[in-house]
Structure formats: C-alpha cells, structure tokens
Request: fold
Amino acid sequence: MSLSKHPVLAQLALGFAPLYDKQRQVLATRISCIPLKPDASIDTAALLAAVAEAMPDKPVVLNVPQEAALQGLLAQALPANMALEIPAFLATGLAPALEGHKGHLLKGAGPAPLGVERAAFKAAELDLDDLRRGVQDPNRLPLWCNVVRSGPEAGEAFERGAAAVFGLPVEGHYEAPAGAPSKGEVSADLQVIIILMGQVDQGESAEKMEATLKRDPGLAFKLLRYMNSAAFGLPVEVTSFRHAMMLLGLNRLKRWLALLLATASKDSTMRPVMWAALRRGLLMEELSKSLQDSDAKDEMFICGLFSLLDHLLKTPVAKLLESIPCPERVRQALVDNSGPYQPFLQLVHAIEIESVFDYREATEALMLSPLELNHAVLSCLHKGAQLE
Reply:
C-alpha cells in the first residue's frame, strides 16, 4: 500500500515511541505531532486522515501539544484505535469538547479532581521525576509514565507504580556492566542467521544455503512469514527458500536475514527494543529514497536495524560486527560515527526523542522537507505494523 501525500504534514515535526507494560509487551504507538510554528492553524481533519491511513487498526496515542488542534481533534469522529493526550491544565477548559469521549490520557496531575470530564480518561501520565517525588493523580486514574530513556528508568517507573511507560528503554551504544565478563560469540540459536548472511555475502549456491536453513525449521518459517507479509509486497506467495532467492536476489535476501537477526532475541525485556529496531530500519529505508544510490536502500535498512543490535545481543557494536557480515558504510555509521548514513541515524534519533530543535537541524543538513520526512515516518510505522 502506498500512503497518500497529506499537505498538513508540512506543518509538523513528527515523533514516535512505543508504549509498553511491565511484561514489556508493546501496547500502542505514540505519535507526537508538534507544530513547527506554535501558532500555526492545523487542519485537524487532514491530520487525523493521515494518521488513520498509516495506522488503521493498531492502537495509537496521539500527542498534539496545541490547544486549538486538540479542540479540532475532539470535534472529529476519532477512530476506535486512537486516543489523545490531554494536558491536565487544559482538561477543565476542554470539558464541553470531551463530553461523550472515552479512553483518552490525562497528561500531568492537576491541583484538584476533575468533574464530569474525568470520564473521558483511562489513565494519567506522569513524568518519572513526578513519580520519584511521590506526586499523586487526584483523579485516582491508573498511572502511566510519560517518557523513559533506559532500561533502569523503565524498571524504576514500574516499581514506583506505573502500569505502562512510553519511550525507548535504551540510549547510546551498549556498554557491558563494570566487572562483567567479556561476551564471546553470539548465542548458538542465532548462528544459523549469521552463517546464512555470510553465505549470501560470499555468493554461495542456493543448495548450500537451503541446507543451512534446514538446521533451523523455526527460522525458515519466520523468514517465509516475513516475505509473505503485506509490507513486503511480493506479487506471489513465497513457498520455499529457493523461491525466495529467485524472487528477491541476494541483496534483498540479506536485508531480511538482518531483520530476523534484529528480532530474534528471546529476552522478553527487549521487546520494545526489537519494536524500535524494525522501525529504525524501515525509516532509514524510506529516507534512502533521497539518495541517488542503488545500494543505499538495503544498506540503510540494515543500518537502522543494526543500530540497536548491540543492546539486543548485549555485545559492544564493534565486537559484534567482527563476526556479522556488514556493508562498510553501515560499519562506518555504527562503529566510527561517520560516513554517509550517520546523519540519517542522527535524524532518526531526533524523531525518537521528539526534539524539534534536533529535527530541524537534521532535516536542514540533509535538505529534506518536513512533508517528505513525515511521510517517511508514517510509512515506516505503517509497514512496521504490517510486519508484526
């Protein structure tokens, strides 16, 4: 499916983050739509249409930090899968617009309990600092934590009473804890994927690669499921590994093996990280369209996926890439923080942390328009939802 072009996206900086519970199950996608000009008049019907087209059936939390836009959104018939974040200090003033609404989120703790408008909310969002200070929601709604930036922060938020948290639970590169033994090769259950990636890299025969894949029937099933998903867009059903090779070619096959590697962790606490790795890869792939380079699409997809692989496999990235076949430009971005893909990774990071300043700086450096970038963001979220 090709998403429509929505002119309203030219007025916004989009960001996204997962919402997940104590079991690290991803519950929803938070999409922040921040006006590039604070007083801009946003066509809320057009914004709602753009988000609804990208995420027609997966749960979405929409964060639009502008009172006029919230008024406009509350006047629309919101899809059943969509909830709004409403700042606590605006909730009373928006009471007439909230009448008849259910399932929204109250952002922050007000000084006093709400009136009839309380019925519109299913949870209250507090910052981690609020939880540390013992701030209570006077409405006694279930507590969610607004943004966390690391695994320890997520754990602390849950310990302090949050039922769910927003934000990626990792930041920067993975560093082994002090005194921890140096980890050697990746686990045996991932070796088949790495061997296959090496065989693709070396142009081995289809027979030899198929024999390797047969060592892990579960992997073969998952690979075929990915390839037959709507996001992959193949005209016919893929029925075997050889069939996949014939349809895809080695370069595209390698990128889907990279996807398997980035989503193969059996550590349940890493589910939000795998969620983010997939979307990084898809967003980098979308952004590759701005480059006049036939290899960039697959390489940037792998670059986005592998940018969180060190956290997923608990191994420093430089050591990890010694054993995993990786394009040189990907290695430059991930290990040396250089090369042509590194500015795109910076842009992806700005989108994840919802920093308008960094968003502007990165888009200007890459000469991307907000419309072009935001269309790529919604497209990556759409494809990510299709692959899950």
